[in-house]
Structure formats: C-alpha cells, structure tokens
C-alpha cells in the first residue's frame, strides 16, 4: 500500500525479480481496478472481476475516477468468494497484493480491513507493507503527513506493519546524509527544527507539537530504506517482512526433504 506513485507496482515487480534470483516464488495479485501498467506476471487481476471504467461508463452509475474506484473495491468486498477461488490452488503461497493508492480505502471505508479479515480466515498470515516515496520524506512537514497516513493505515488494519521508504536511488548525496534522521525519527526533534522560525504562529506550533508527541507516543513509526538498485537493500526488506509474517518457519523439514531428493536444490519451494 501507499500513496499514488509511491512505487507499489515497481516494488512488486522488483520482488518478483529478486525472488527469481534467490529461487523463491513470489506471486502478485493486482488489486487496483484502475491499473494500466505493471510489468510483473499476475496471479490474479481484479480487473477481470471489475474495472474502474465499468463504474465510470455505466449509465446508472456515472462515477468519476475516485468514486469509481471506491465502487469497484466495494464490489470486490461483496465478491471475496471470487478471490478465494483464484487463490485456492497456490502452493508456494507468498503473495503480494498491489493495492490502489487512495487513502480513503484504508481510513474511511472498511474494504481493506474486510480483505485482511478474509485472508486471515483463509489462513494467510498478513503483513501490511506501506510505501512512501523518499522524495517526500526529506522535508519534515511532508514527512509528518506521510507518517500520519502510515499510522492511520496501521491502526485501522491491525496487522503486522512495515513502512518502507522507496526510491532511495533518486536521493541526492546531500539528502542521503540526512536519511538517518528520517528512518528512526523523533518527531518532536524534526518538527522543532522545522517550525523554529518566527513566521509560524504560536497556535500552529502548538498543534504541530501535539501531533509530534502523539506520533512519538506510538513509537511505532520506523522506515526501512529501499534502494532498488541495491540487491542487499531489497533482500533486507524482504527478510524483515518474513520475520513479521513468520514466513519460512516451517521451511526446514521440507528443505531437508528436497535436499535428500535433489542435493543441488537447496532453497526453492517455501510454504507460507
Ligand atoms: N528511480 C526509481 N523510480 C521508481 C522507484 N519506484 C518507482 N519508481 C518510478 O515511480 C513511478 C511510479 O511507480 P509505480 O510503481 O507505478 O507506483 P505506484 O505506487 O504503483 O503508483 P499507482 O499505482 O499509480 O498508485 C514510475 O515511473 C516508476 O518507474 C524506485 O525505487 N526508483
Ligand atoms: Mg501501481
């Protein structure tokens, strides 16, 4: 998940490619009814159930793009059986869900929460991965709004949750030097620097201090850095998420079985 353009589809595509290089199968489900371009192979595509044009072009609906998307996602929530059928035969069941970016799906309407509950009912371990573009983070005021959206998603979905800062390859050397401040942020410290200036009113500063204290109180907002040009960085993110999912805990016996059958084959075939 994550705001529009934060790199969700690219993340999925990078994880599929990384999976190929470490002999691990990563499936992707496209959950964006408005998706036009992605370059990963899809296991399931929500557009086969409904797409945003259906809701926009229908004479009786006539939605715009955002209302259309909400309509499609609600339609999906009424048709989870369809999704369950498509997921039923998967053996190597590490599945990424490439979600739409609209924040209201995570904060205002229940569809994503319902999806999480359905997946859990079907015995999947679920971890939310929330992506934010590092270009927006390297400025304290934008960072706060990014953190708040990540936090409200986390509180709303109630799953294990990992925040990832994407597009590090695009940061300048100067911005990279500041990165540590943002990966494990103390909000009060960040905002103190930003709003020290006298041009801000007392009330505005007080509001920001209150928001910062609230975020610090949760002390749950951390970001994993992701540089798609660095294989180690991709692997690090994958492993952190594996830990949250307890993924691969049942791998050992199967790995040993496979080694007995085929001594060359060590790390393929995970069970989720
Ligand atoms: N350099 C660089 N570009 C990236 C990275 N991730 C995404 N991009 C670019 O950012 C743009 C948006 O990426 P997408 O993966 O489509 O983002 P998205 O979150 O799926 O976007 P929506 O589905 O429209 O919400 C594309 O032009 C990508 O090529 C990255 O890590 N590095
Ligand atoms: Mg996308």
Automatic annotation (TrEMBL):
Key word Hydrolase present: yes
Stored InterPro entries: Gpn, Gpn3, P-loop_NTPase
UniProt keyword terms in alphabetical order: GTP-binding, Hydrolase, Nucleotide-binding
GO MF assignments: GTP binding; GTPase activity
Protein role: Small GTPase required for proper nuclear import of RNA polymerase II and III (RNAPII and RNAPIII). May act at an RNAP assembly step prior to nuclear import.
Quaternary structure note: Binds to RNA polymerase II (RNAPII).
Name of this protein: GPN-loop GTPase 3
